[in-house]
Amino acid sequence: MPTPPGPDRPSADTATIAAADLLGAAARCGTPCAPVRDLIGSDDVAAAYAVQELLTAERVAAGAEIVGRKIGLTSPAVQRQLGVDQPDFGVLFDDMYYPQDTPVPLSRLLQPKLEAEVAFVLAADLVDGPLDDEQIRGAVGYAVAALEIVDSRIAGWDITFGDTVADNASSGLFVLGADHRTLDSFDPVSAQMRMSIDGAEVSTGAGAACLGDPLHALAWLARTSREFGRPLRAGQIVLSGALGPMAPIQGPATVTADITGLGSVTATFIQE
Length: 272
Hints:
By secondary structure, this protein is α+β, with helices and mostly antiparallel strands. It has helices at 14-29, 37-40, 45-61, 76-82, 133-139, 161-166, 214-227, and strands at residues 66-72, 88-93, 104-105, 113-122, 140-150, 173-176, 192-197, 200-206, 237-242, 247-248, 253-259, 263-270.
């Protein structure tokens, strides 16, 4: 993985800037845009992350705070669908977080879909050292049930690997549950998940569906983030990847996910 440019507005070629401008305009206007793969390619990893880095730098310059990362494409089925053999990651900003008791306005979203996940909150930096299983486990302060509201600025979710990476890994918003569990009392790989929309079951899954173990996903992210020069830090939140299929929402709804060992997490979506 290449190291991206520095924290100020990155140097970028014409295609990178054009792709970032297209995605940025879609986010601001609330109207999905055409895919950006014609500008940066479908599977050019360096080009896709360069677009993501440019958009991230612009958001930070505008006052947004980075609070963590999300991991995507952790499911083998989704990887096969997109013709890729690796996960991806995006950036979590402070304004993407909604507490459970705060309704989520659908106006914040374009084409939302819900995923139930295990989130990790880090108690130690993952900067130096081997980043092996022992170090990864030791860095986790606690795990918490999470709902990730994935979204795409690209019309009809017509995405390839390059499109989704450039679009901040199709990040939208996220909600965290109330129960915090240390890894002494919670085994992520053994977790079972059930997600419902307005009481109707829409997704089930297990910890093993997330790169074999959500902690494996965290380890991948720790190593990859360090290679990019953006290592994970204490206090950051990591959404480790979907435990089951994502489900779309079409209008106002209440979504609840139950994860064994972590309790439940609920998000209520409203039309303003």
